[in-house]
Amino acid sequence: MTALSVTTYGVDADAVVDGLVGEKVASRIAAKDATLWGPEAESEASIRLGWTDLHETSRPLLAEIEALQAELRAEGLDRIVLAGMGGSSLAPEVITRSAGVELTVLDTTDPGSVARALADRLDRTVIVVSSKSGSTVETDSQRRVFAAAFEAAGIDAASRIVVVTDPGSGLADLANEQGYRKVFLADPNVGGRYSALTAFGLVPSGLAGADIAALLDEAAAVAEHLAGDVTDNPALRLGAALAGGHAQGRDKVAIADAGSGIVGLADWAEQLIAESTGKQGTGILPIASGDVDDPEVAHPADDVLPAIVGSPAEPPAKGVVVDGELGAQFLLWEYATAVAGKLLGINPFDQPDVESAKIAARGLLDATPEPEPAAFTDGGIEVRGSAGLLDGVTSLDGAVDALLGQLAPNGYLAVMAYLDREGDDAGLADVRVPLERRTERPATFGWGPRFLHSTGQYHKGGPAQGVYLQVTGTPAEDLAIPDRPFTFGQLIAAQATGDAQVLADHGRPVLRLHLTDRKAGIETLRGILR
């Protein structure tokens, strides 16, 4: 059996685990018992439990993926771009980075990011367009601009586009009409954030060169144990650790790595936990920590549980250590999150607040309103805020102080950057840890619009504990979206404005900073926010 362990320190989960064993929660999940989460969740749960046996049901995909990869390589096509958001991109990113193979993950609408992806080895590129619904605006826009670029270069676009989608989606119909290279239909009974071992995780990863058969083997090796009604079931222990202390106020989990060899698991788990639990005014806030030395892990507050992946030199005084191979970890965290949903009394398979920001952005694009005037501009940074936040404030420093002053003793700060996460803007992420030290509260950092498919659900549906710092920037150059009345620059601006609008409508404090000069503005912010 593949080694998989969950060890708790300073957290008494035994009584909770005993209760879960008594209710046969693990075996009922494995048997796809949709009644576990209550009558209101039953209809959704009945079509969302296909993930429990993907280590078996995804096997037929392996030969198809291997055959397509061989075809592509024979044609000299060795660069894979993935156009996908949330559950369509996070697992493939972890899989390929951990395997050390190249995959260009395009999960942004920043025009600079998209232009850079278009300019890189187009002659050797295949794009995997990945969307369950087929209607995701980001993914559709990326498909359009790549198709146009292929045609402009004299390349048959259809031969370079591979689609992963659910049966019956509009994208599946389009792919068949256009004659795209290959269409992979995923299991429709698996939600996006539970889809790591479906076609959504396996197709782009396998085409990029990762050993996806090994992932299924790793999951298969632990599946029986995770389905067992026994007290040493790692999923029950992790689920109990995540949610068992929730009633006592421990409602945040900081996920850090300690030599596991897995790259970026926290980013994948962040979406899984935030979207699954952050609703009805409750939930568990995941913090994707960079290192075991980060404040929320090394010196956690009483409401934060460190979860360390790998083998730390010293275990946490209070926390949980999770060790195992990547395929096993995927299945473990999925089981544990479903268990946590049971303990919290919520449906872990819906995401009722994700659509709100999308609807707001769509409305802004349709209306093309005039930009909201800034409250003031300081050093080339336009400053806006939710109602009352900036009363009497006239400086950037003062605006930041006003936002941080709204932090409650059990609160958190979310930094939301609608910028280029892999270009010159990447350094802004460095502000997260200094902000934690400054506020002595947990801070999350999300790149927009990527995080809208992840922690965005928790921001709006979870407890009203957060304060929100949004950073946007004027692009150096915009990029048109073929056959659309808006550009990538207009799309990302509408997504940011829509997100801020919905947060403000929920009564959340929001400070919006727009960088008219990105490079200078980021340097200014890195100085002010430390």
TrEMBL record:
Its EC number is 5.3.1.9. Signal peptide: none annotated. It catalyses: alpha-D-glucose 6-phosphate = beta-D-fructose 6-phosphate. One of its GO terms (molecular function) is monosaccharide binding. It is an enzyme of class 5 (isomerase). GO terms for biological process: gluconeogenesis; glucose 6-phosphate metabolic process; glycolytic process. Pathway: Carbohydrate degradation; glycolysis; D-glyceraldehyde 3-phosphate and glycerone phosphate from D-glucose: step 2/4. SUPFAM superfamilies: SIS domain. GO terms for cellular component: cytosol. InterPro entries: G6P_Isomerase, SIS_dom_sf. Keywords: Gluconeogenesis, Glycolysis, Isomerase. Belongs to the GPI family. PANTHER family: GLUCOSE-6-PHOSPHATE ISOMERASE. This is Glucose-6-phosphate isomerase. It comes from Jiangella mangrovi.
